[in-house]
């Protein structure tokens, strides 16, 4: 049976919310895996007792050190090698589990995933992929791991994102867009222009062209690729706009008796809208390109968000996406070698 390793010590609301989220996930998804909680055992047991939840059959790996949000990312492999995050990643790398979930320091988790678990062979860069809180599922990649990228990095992000959406969301031929400031092929910096040309020539990717920021919410693509700096700004803008819209609606409906009556009439569709705009419904972001599933849950995750991140980790581990990406990267590398060999022996004009 699959084993899921859960770091319950990282994040702003850990371990209270993370332990409660893990217990909720075990109650909902229990039969799909065995669960290993990594963190301060006395605190874990206290929170479980307060929640009147049984820990029978759940393995607890005790650690005392915690990586904080302020810590340097490299501490995961240097000064805090005995932390809950480092321990969880090391267990994954050594085959003691099949996936890791953590709300901890993003930089440290990414660094640890790269240096301890290792990236997929032949892949240049791993990236953090986030599902945008929109009506239609859109996977944005990268959202913070790689501030600077090359056109080949973006091509690999596109392929990984497409495989993820195919395997986990059942989209047969995911549409891939390149985030840009215009739809024409000549728009953007030299990087976007080179990436556009590269993606257009790749038959394995269903590339639909450049996508402007105001087009994303209309569902024009299933995967959106960009560098980590732009992706992180775009993600937080979308999440912030969603929260702002919901706050404005709340003001309208609480403005008086008429507003409260109107709210009762549209309560059901508003609840659906709130769910669509809520980042907690997704719970976390996979680090695509790592040889085993690593899910980064939101640092401010509540129990509900962490439970959903655990469900996402289970689905990712079960999907076979990593195996397909691994095979494709090997195939791409071999093809590049063949193309280079052909070019080297071609007669010169």
What report would you give on this structure?
With 349 residues, this protein is α/β, with parallel strands linked by helices. It has a domain at 1-123 and 289-349: 3-Layer(aba) Sandwich (Isopropylmalate Dehydrogenase), CATH 3.40.718. It is 47% helix and 14% strand. It has helices at 16-29, 41-50, 84-93, 106-117, 151-169, 190-200, 228-253, 257-265, 267-277, 303-319, 321-345; strands at residues 3-7, 34-39, 59-62, 99-102, 127-131, 139-141, 175-179, 206-211, 223-225, 284-288, 294-297. Strands 3-2-1-4-11-10-5-6-9-7-8 form an eleven-stranded mixed sheet, with helices on both faces. Helix 5 (151-169) crosses helix 6 (190-200) and helix 5 (151-169) runs antiparallel to helix 11. The longest helix has 26 residues, at 228-253. The protein is globular, with a radius of gyration of 22 Å. The model has no long low-confidence stretch (mean pLDDT 92).
How does the SSE layout of this entry go?
Blueprint (H helix, E strand, L loop, with lengths): L2 E5 L8 H14 L4 E6 L1 H10 L8 E4 L21 H10 L5 E4 L3 H12 L9 E5 L7 E3 L9 H19 L5 E5 L10 H11 L5 E6 L11 E3 L2 H26 L3 H9 L1 H11 L6 E5 L5 E4 L5 H17 L1 H25 L4
